[in-house]
Predict the structure.
Amino acid sequence: MTTPAKRSFAAKEEIESLKIVLLINNDAQARKIFLEKSLEKIEAGLVNINKSLKRKIVNHYKKWRWAPYTYRWPAYDLSYYLEIWSGIIRQKIDAGKELKRLLAEPEEIKNKKQAIVKKLKISSFDNHLFNIAADIIYLKSFRKDCWFHGCFAAENLYKEIGRRLGLSLNQVWMMGFWEIAPALRKKEFDPEVINQRIKFSVLYQKGEKGYIYSGQKAKNFLSKLILEKEKIIKVNELSGTGAYAGKIKGKVKIINLPEEMVKIEKGDIMVSHTTFPSLVPAMKKAAAIITDDGGITCHAAIVARELKTPCIVGTKIATKVLRDGDLVEVDADKGVVKKLNK
């Protein structure tokens, strides 16, 4: 009853993405190019695609590349979408059927809610409360996505600030907003102080005034606070959608960023919130792949089928309940992950 009937940004992107797949499939020249396994050949072949379709491809990339950005990089590059579309076409996934399912989903949710209201004789007042709860759940996700899009949109501004100050993007991110104007106008900033913040720092905001502590000062500041520890949900089994069949045991390695790929060894179980092309080297080493997000047409599912690696997507909570070193059994036939004793 609290499931939102409104489409999320992710659902809207997937619908638009599948429409592009249908356009590619209906264009003989484009389809031939996207049947290539090599991303380099697909990218090179884009010049031979009709201008209208090419424009739609590029516009989709520009419109949605912010999706995985969160607070700071990486955004998707064009190769992410080319790999997705190529995989759907080569693996003969019925894009039309999947598109039809996604388009019908909001109405199906509404119909199921109405059936429950009728069956349980839920009052109009209580039903109104359920609708409010559904709106709150939708807005929570919508608010986050708007925030993340804002962070992505601001990146070029941060890059320009960095260019003028001779700082990297990461260094600019470590500056307080109140420090930017003096740095630009009077060159009042210390790169070494900023570098210390990258290693370990705390931002403390009191009213309109902000304070940034680094190193030992940051540790001393934190030691005086009563922090609420994150409650790790104890889950021994989680489920999702099996994207490629297989059953295997292995140790978990959480990989969300390219710099984290050094952790993974051949035979490990790769667990990610989502995947993208720069994580493929880690995916090739993994004995199985598990993600929080995604369905049968997501990047992880596409690549897993190419690699013939057992894969479960859409678990929602894998990165929250699993930790590096956990021993798990992945049964992608059933879409189930079982946590075993270490």
